[in-house]
């Protein structure tokens, strides 16, 4: 059990129990997130929420920098972007419902010992960042959900038409407003896919406009 935790630093949510048997999971933001019930790895927070609701579970998010708990993906995303802490602090957590944590897990990079796998993970991310990133599982390029497509479209229509670096701006807004992590190339591809095809007349007009702007 210890060796598995050392090899796979994917954010593994803890299953916890509230009153009347109501279960939820505590997941470390920004992910990727691993379902504690079926071991599915999910990169996007909103998709992880939808996945856990299929299992009948709710999700609380923990800041990956300071371990503070947040009830929604939006609240933890806003906090995470402003959180400047690099050292973890202890946070009171609900009792673990499924099994006891290992008494000791050892960092293979320096030999330091920790009482939880999450403590080891945060230590490696801060003290051995290169090794930590090398050990992370390669994520598959997640497909855009309907929520993400609509969120991107709504943000784009609210921007002025003459804005520069629109893909960078949209990437930042997606993260700040919805906690969605999409890079510039992903956004560029999705916007191109959502754009209706131009007819020949429109293409000709655009070419003529470019020629006029260049003075030819």
Automatic annotation (TrEMBL):
InterPro entries: Znf_C2H2_sf, Znf_C2H2_type
Listed Gene3D superfamilies: Classic Zinc Finger
SMART domains from the UniProt entry: ZnF_C2H2
Record bears the keyword Metal-binding: yes
Signal peptide coordinates: none
Ranges for region Disordered: 1-20
Residue spans crossing the bilayer: none
PROSITE patterns documented for this protein: ZINC_FINGER_C2H2_1, ZINC_FINGER_C2H2_2
GO MF entries: zinc ion binding
Swiss-Prot/TrEMBL keywords: Metal-binding, Zinc, Zinc-finger
SUPFAM superfamilies on file: beta-beta-alpha zinc fingers
Every C2H2-type domain range: 105-133
Protein name, per record: R2 protein
């Amino acid at each position: 059990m210890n060796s598995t935790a050392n090899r796979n630093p994917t954010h593994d949510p803890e299953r916890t129990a509230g009153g009347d048997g109501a279960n939820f999971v505590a997941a470390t933001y920004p992910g990727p997130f691993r379902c504690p019930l079926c071991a599915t790895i999910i990169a996007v927070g909103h998709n992880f929420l939808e996945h856990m609701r299929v299992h009948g579970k709710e999700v609380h998010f923990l800041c990956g920098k300071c371990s503070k708990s947040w009830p929604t993906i939006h609240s933890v995303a806003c906090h995470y972007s402003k959180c400047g802490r690099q050292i973890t602090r202890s946070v009171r957590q609900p009792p673990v419902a499924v099994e006891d944590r290992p008494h000791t897990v050892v960092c293979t990079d320096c030999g330091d010992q920790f009482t939880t796998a999450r403590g080891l993970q945060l230590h490696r991310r801060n003290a051995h960042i290169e090794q930590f990133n090398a050990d992370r599982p390669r994520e598959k390029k997640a497909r855009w959900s309907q929520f993400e497509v609509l969120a991107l479209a709504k943000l784009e229509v609210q921007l002025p038409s003459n804005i520069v670096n629109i893909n960078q701006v949209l990437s930042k807004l997606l993260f700040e407003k919805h906690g969605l992590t999409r890079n510039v190339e992903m956004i560029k591809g999705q916007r191109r896919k959502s754009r209706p095809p131009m007819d020949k007349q429109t293409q000709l007009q655009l070419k003529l406009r470019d020629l006029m702007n260049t003075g030819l």
